[in-house]
Amino acid sequence: xxxxxxxxxxxxxxxxxxxxxxxxxxxxxxxxxxxxxxxxxxxxxxxxxxxxxxxxxxxxxxxxxxxxxxxxxxxxxxxxxxxxxxxxxxxxxxxxxxxxxxxxxxxxxxxxxx
Length: 114
Hints:
The chain is mainly alpha-helical. It has two domains: 49 residues, no CATH class; 46 residues, no CATH class. Helix content is 44%, strand content 5%. The protein is built from four helices and two strands. A two-stranded antiparallel ribbon has the order 1-2. Strand 1 and strand 2 form a beta hairpin. The longest helix has 24 residues. It is elongated, with a radius of gyration of 24 Å.
C-alpha cells in the first residue's frame, strides 16, 4: 500500500503548513494592534482591524501616521449649539452651513487632559 500524499487525506481535511498558521496569527496580531490604536485615536476599530490584518505592517504604520480626530479643533454650531469639528462644512444635526468661526474650541484631547 502506498502512503497517502499530504494534500489528499482520507478524512477530506487539508494539512496546513506551520508557516501559514504563523502568518495568520501574525495578521491577527497586527489586526488587534490596529484596532487598539484606532480606539485610542478615536477612529473606526473595525475598519482599522481589517486594514491592519490584510496589510499587516503597512496598515499599522498608516494608522500610526493617520491624524487623530481627537486633536482637531472644534466649534459650536450657531443654529443648534452642537459642538462639531472645525473642518465640517455642515452641521450634522440641523444642516446649518458653517463658516470659519471667530472663536475656536480646544480639541477633545486637550480638554480631557486638563
